Amino acid sequence: MPEIRIQSMVTGMVATNVYFVQNTETKEMLIIDPADDAAAIRRRVSAMEGKPVAILLTHGHYDHMLAAEAVRDAYGIPVYIEEEDEKVLEDARYNLSGLWTVPFTMKADRLMKDGDVLHLAGLEIHVILTPGHTWGSCCFYLPEEKVLFSGDTLFCGSYGRTDFATSSSRDMADSVHRLLRELPEDTEVYPGHESFTTIGDEKMFNPLAYGL
User: Fold this and answer.
1) Domain ranges, residue 23
2) I need a surface site. Which of 47, 101, 131, 146 has the fewest CB within 10 A?
3) What pTM value is reported for the model?
């Protein structure tokens, strides 16, 4: 099993976490949610001596993808998104750029669905559909490493907003329950905003854990 190296940087107007997930043997790298500032992302890739192979989006909101097109073009790599969020990515009303910044849309290169297993950078990545924040919000789970990239579904002691056009509070509760029920308690959780957590901690302290 290859060892992985995870680094993060915070960028964009709402302080989004961008993740760099690297296979330390091959230097191949995944970039998760390139929120903004493509130049800073490229500098981090260079500092890590990374070889990007794909961009993974947890959902289509602008604050997770504004730099995706520029980073894709810089490295000639595909952008992945869950199939239900394709229309979020392609509509400035749904991806919220039309509300809070210059309207921006883009197209993904690859569509994913719940249960897909991606083999990228020598890593096994399970796609978990977790609607609630958007129609096609998803999480990326690396079972060998017990690591979850949770986007805006599961936060440290909290969860993503459910007051947007593509949101559902009921779906959010179901999605958080699914993660807390199905994943090991020692799973490390890397959310789209703010600090890291674990599944075990969220089972104890997350407000949506009630009734598990």
Assistant:
1) 4-209
2) 47
3) 0.97
pLDDT in tens, 33-53: 999 999 999 999 999 999 999
Round to whole Å and give the CA distance between 138 and 149: 9
Q: Count the Cβ atoms, other than its own, within 10 Å of residue 66.
A: 24
Number of domains in the chain: 1
Tokens of 124: 């096994």
